Amino acid sequence: MSWSSLLSWSEWAMSFVIFVHFVVYLHFAVYYLFTGDYDSCVLSLFFMARTMGVWCVIIQFIFGRSMEFSDMWTWFFPRPPPGPDSNPRGPNNDGNGSGGVSGTPLMGTTIQALTLIGAMDVSATTIIMPIFVSSRGNEYFCEIDEDYLTDRFNLTGLNTEVSYYQYALDLVTDVFDLDADDDLREQIEKSARHLYGLVHARYIVTTRGLAKMLEKYKKSDFGKCPRVMCDGHALLPVGQADLPNMSTVKLYCPKCEDIYNPKSSRHASIDGAYFGTSFHSILFQVYPALNPEKSSRRYEPRIYGFKVHAAAALARYQDMEREDLKSRLAEVDIQHRFIEDSESDGDAFEYDEDYAEGRTEPAKNQGQAGDAASAPMEIGN
């Protein structure tokens, strides 16, 4: 007999002893209650509670975990396997037979890995989450604290978003003991991945979650910006919607403030709702020193050294709009600088009055920009 089997039988035996003590003391309490001996009834209830507490402490000392009444109830009265109608959002109720979750693995974790985790007879959110986070394709995720995952307040409302919710939660927290067939277990594993992703979106906007994602951001675990002018700045995962199955995850560059598709196909299939639309903004609100300086550099197309006329006119128009925005910010005492400004001079931004006077007629300037775009190019005499 294996050690894990011996532990299981020992737990069962101890739970049986607790159950017998509970029944005996309850019997005496009821007997004294009907005979009118209320003092003995209260004393029996006191001894019942004390004995239950002592046994729970013994089990916690031996097996390294707390004993809950739900454990004893599960051992004596196992839950029956769920049927297709056990959840209003179960299989065949959402139109695709997937129980509310896409038929493809949402995070790339193989079913074999989760099956192995579920088969391990060890206690552990300490086991399942590190394996899940370190799995190929899940590099964007951080490990959720066990205390956060087991706090039901943090899971409010998710029972309507995830099929087989209770079984999925049991699988994530590694207390799943249902002997189900392969098809049913596969559905529960998909729901467990979906549940972890939805909880992850809530966790990464907490203090602990932001700190963990910040470490990954500093190490460029999410990749680097493909834009040349950003000089390989680190990216952050972002969703375009907070609701699941709306869009896949994108990568946000805080330097050029644009979003990009992930390079790897295994990351491109991750649901954007697992990161949400607010995470990157909250991160830079909490850590404002990490918000990079923006650059005004842009690529200028040329032909034999001469700027392409339409592109040059557009660039001039964008430069005028940028300067107009800077002047408006200066008027309300909001200083905004580009990297090139700090390189050219070390002084703070100064309001250019000559430029402001030249911008008093925006319609005229826009007309000049349009004329410049359509005028012929004069190379020389």
Written account of the structure:
The protein is mainly α and 381 residues long. It has four domains: 7-76; 111-203, Orthogonal Bundle (protein kinase ck2 holoenzyme, chain C, domain 1), CATH 1.10.1820; 216-290, Single Sheet (N-terminal domain of TfIIb); 296-348, no CATH class. The chain has 15 helices and five strands. The chain has helices at residues 3-35, 38-63, 69-76, 111-119, 125-134, 146-150, 165-172, 182-203, 207-218, 265-268, 279-286, 309-331, 339-344, 353-358, 362-374, and strands at residues 236-238, 250-253, 258-260, 302-303, 306-307. The strands form two sheets. A three-stranded antiparallel sheet has the order 1-2-3, with no helix packed on it. The protein has a two-stranded antiparallel ribbon with strand order 4-5. Strand 2 and strand 3 form a beta hairpin. Helix 4 (111-119) runs antiparallel to helix 5 (125-134). The chain is elongated.
The succession of helices and strands, N to C, reads HHHHHHHHHEEEHHEEHHHH
User: Number of DSSP helices?
Assistant: 15
Spatial gap, N to C terminus:
99 Å
> How many strand elements?
5
Provide the helix percentage. Answer: 40-55%
Query: What is the strand arrangement across the widest sheet?
Result: 1-2-3
Topology overview:
Blueprint: H1 3-35, H2 38-63, H3 69-76, H4 111-119, H5 125-134, H6 146-150, H7 165-172, H8 182-203, H9 207-218, E1 236-238, E2 250-253, E3 258-260, H10 265-268, H11 279-286, E4 302-303, E5 306-307, H12 309-331, H13 339-344, H14 353-358, H15 362-374
Antiparallel strand pairs: 1-2, 2-3, 4-5
